[in-house]
Specification:
Blueprint: H1 9-14, H2 25-28, H3 30-42, E1 46-50, E2 59-65, E3 68-74, E4 80-84, E5 98-101, E6 105-106, E7 113-114, E8 120-122, E9 141-145, E10 148-152, H4 161-172, E11 180-190, H5 194-201, H6 207-210, H7 232-254, E12 262-264, E13 273-278, E14 309-314, E15 317-321, E16 326-335, E17 338-348, H8 359-384, H9 400-417
Domain Rieske: 45-151
Pfam families: Rieske, Ring_hydroxyl_A
Cofactor: Fe cation
């Protein structure tokens, strides 16, 4: 198709046959990628870090979001703030991507100096009449939810972040994720479009054949299955699954824990998310190979180990919180065929490696799973760019979230590019 005959982004998105995957153009075109970044990563709320990234006053985390960049800062009053990573003089980057600790934010180009509250404190050679008060760093809208730092680069951020906050703050409260530290973190660049990364994360059709480490603790029935033509053995397993789920939920609710599923991904919703407390297989304690806690120092002030997996999914992140640790992943698009997947393993702030936990036991499930998913996304992306690709049907049993995501994506694209 010649450049002159290219369909618009919205036209391609709305051409998708219901119940089927997205057209390959939505994954491979540069213009589509650029619109995606603008709409879904600049105008919507995205997860950009955790409070453990900046544990002390003066700590800074610089996060690049394609051409944009932000500084996440803990100020002298222990507040989490975010600013555009752009000097108000001639636009130099204040910090390269990564973490650091500062007393003040000093531009490396001409040494304009900013306080942690964003105010411009010092400039040389600007004259006595120069008004510093109108040259503060440009703030970025920020919302901290249970240790998760959400940001929005738009002038008018979607107000429904408050529904996510009201839903998740009491669910995260028992774990007190603000009192954690990062035990380990990884960056993986997956060779695929960001939407394929999210789609891969939101279905477990592939899990049994490709994720032996993950399925040691996941119950496959939680992620959909075909109930038709079950053998007697499979039927008994299904009944056991329902019985275990019911017993676990009853036990958790007696302890005052919130368990119900919230699915918020309708086309008219800006801040889409899903949350659920999932039962863990085996001993039921944690997402580890033996399904027991990896850290004897539990999160918050918890004493009970078998609290399942408190799950949160957004359009650029997924979080799993167990009694002993949390795994927080989020994505940043780099190119049509490149997506950064950043994962952080959080433990109690007082947990000591080698004493309270073994690092390999803590991380091996998701280290392996992330590597496996990277390979799956790569082969998926390459196939969608083949001239022979025609979007196939979603499974109505195991890929229902992919249909919801596809509908949400097309609707938000239309609303935010109108």
């Amino acid at each position: 198709m010649s450049a002159a005959n290219l369909r618009t982004h919205a036209e391609v998105a709305h051409s998708r046959q219901p119940g089927h995957g997205m057209p390959g153009e939505l994954f491979g075109r540069q213009d589509v990628f650029e619109t995606d970044v603008d709409v879904f990563f600049h105008r919507h709320w995205i997860l950009a870090g955790v409070t453990a990234d900046v544990p002390q006053a003066g700590d800074v985390s610089a996060v690049d979001l394609e051409r944009a960049s932000i500084l996440i800062v803990r100020d002298d009053d222990e507040n989490i703030r975010a600013y555009r990573n752009v000097c108000r003089h001639r636009g130099a980057r204040l910090k390269e991507a990564g973490k650091s600790t500062v007393g003040l934010l000093v531009c490396p180009y001409h040494q304009w100096t900013y306080d942690l509250d964003g105010s411009l404190k010092h400039t040389a050679h600007m004259g006595i009449d120069f008004d510093r008060s109108c040259r503060s760093l440009m703030p970025v809208k920020t919302r901290v939810v249970g240790g998760h730092i959400f940001v929005c680069l738009a002038d008018h951020a979607p107000a429904d972040i408050e529904f996510l906050a009201q839903t998740m703050i009491p669910r995260f409260a028992p774990y007190d994720l603000t009192r954690t530290r990062i035990a380990y973190e990884t960056d993986i660049v997956e060779n695929g479009n960001w939407k394929l990364v999210i789609e891969n994360n939101r279905e477990c059709y592939h899990c049994g054949a490709t994720h032996p480490e993950l399925t040691a603790s996941f119950l496959p029935e939680d992620f959909g299955f075909c109930p038709q033509g079950l053998s007697d053995e499979s039927q008994r397993a299904l009944e056991a699954y329902h019985a275990r789920n019911a017993a676990s939920i009853a036990s958790w609710e007696r302890d005052g824990l919130i368990c119900g599923t919230v699915e918020r991904l309708a086309p008219d919703v800006a801040t889409g998310f899903r949350t659920q407390r999932l039962v863990i297989a085996g001993d039921g304690e944690s997402q580890t190979m033996d399904t027991r806690v990896a850290s004897r120092k539990l999160l918050g002030d918890l004493s009970r180990r078998d609290l399942g997996d408190m799950h949160l999914w957004t359009h650029n992140s997924w979080t799993h919180v167990m009694s002993d640790h949390a795994v927080v992943s989020y994505i940043i698009p780099l190119a049509p065929d490149k997506t950064l997947v950043r994962t952080k393993w959080l433990v109690h702030e007082d947990a000591v490696e080698g004493v309270d936990y073994d690092l390999n036991a803590l991380t091996e499930v998701w280290v392996a799973t992330n590597a496996q998913d990277a390979q799956l996304v790569s082969i998926n992306y390459r196939g969608t760019q083949d001239p022979a690709y025609r979007p196939g049907p979603f499974s109505p049993f195991t890929e229902t979230y992919l249909e919801l995501f596809s509908q949400w994506y097309a609707a938000r694209l239309g609303m935010d590019t109108a």
